[in-house]
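Input (structure):
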């Protein structure tokens, strides 16, 4: 866990060292999980409990559960990220959130909006998609920030897969 936090912090801190101008960027990561969509959704839908399945986050809290307007604060082991739930759809197993506040030295972005969804994959399991769009700031190159955000998404999705597939054995 400590190793994941150090890696996440190091990735984000190096992002601010680029000399490119602000750019619009996007990231999409997907994972196939050999578990039902209902099980995957149940394990990952709680907006204020992302730390239960994402190894880079030490803790998280939120103000109003899975209701639009709920604000969560994610603890990275020192720095924090404040996010707001924009939309939550239980029936379609997806939600949208945005970042309200993050130290630009940790993550040099603004106008960040993200979508997370769980779907049946037609093979008895699930496809999970996590995507985000944002603008870089402080001269950070979009490709560098995309790489960092992709790593965060990938780390969470891979851990979610491992948790659910290991518990099914």
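Output (sequence):
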């Amino acid at each position: 866990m400590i190793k994941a936090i150090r890696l996440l912090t190091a990735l984000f801190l190096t992002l601010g060292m680029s000399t490119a101008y602000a750019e619009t960027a996007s990231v999409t990561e997907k994972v196939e999980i050999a578990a039902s969509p209902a099980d995957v959704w149940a394990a990952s839908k709680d907006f204020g409990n992302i730390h239960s399945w994402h190894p880079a986050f030490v803790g998280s809290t939120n103000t109003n559960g899975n209701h639009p307007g709920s604000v969560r604060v994610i603890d990275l082991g020192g720095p924090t990220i404040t996010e707001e739930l924009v939309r939550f759809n239980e029936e379609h197993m997806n939600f949208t959130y945005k970042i309200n506040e993050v130290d630009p030295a940790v993550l040099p972005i603004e106008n960040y909006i993200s979508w997370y969804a769980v779907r049946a994959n037609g093979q008895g399991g699930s496809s999970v998609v996590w995507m985000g769009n944002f603008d870089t700031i402080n001269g950070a190159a979009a490709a560098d920030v995309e790489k960092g955000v992709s790593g965060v998404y990938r780390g969470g999705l891979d851990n979610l897969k491992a948790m659910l597939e290991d518990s099914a054995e």
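Notes: Strands lie at 24-33, 59-62, 71-75, 80-89, 94-102, 109-120, 126-136. Confidence is low (pLDDT under 50) at residues 1-20.
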